[in-house]
Protein: GNAT family N-acetyltransferase
Amino acid sequence: MLEYCIRAAGPDDLDGARAVMLDTVYRDFGTGYVPHWHGDIVDPAAAYLAPARHTLLVALDPEDGAVVATGALDSRGPAHPPNPRCVAERFPSGETAQLRRIYVRPEHRRRGLARRLVAELLAFAAADGGYRAVYLHTDPAVEGAEPFWRSLGKVVLDEREEPAGGQGIIHFEIPMGR
Structure:
């Protein structure tokens, strides 16, 4: 079994991390790059490396050192809109560690990378001392996303169950002590 290196991203990792993220939003989400939603992908240094309470992790291929997976955390809670008001109120900015960009290249999936990235991000959030909750949302249309996140956290709102269906997003709280 390959032993991937997972570490905090540095400046030399940003092009590889950005490529993993952009490939994912085009291939898996089908949205492509949307500036309002994906500004952190274009400038991950400003989004994750500069702020003290934020981080970007990368997983490196043991054979060639290429970035094959990403995971990020920031202190911005979900905004309303586009997220439901009840979710934004439950997870306020500054008190909420939001997991973002947990992306793994298809040929490296099913090897535990996402789970390892999440464990490292939860440890980062716990060490910060200022976060009271860990939040994330996922698109259940992405293959494997919903069962993966259900295995790690608790659904706080499944928009598919709302009268109008919302955006079809599932919102989760992940226990920090996991």
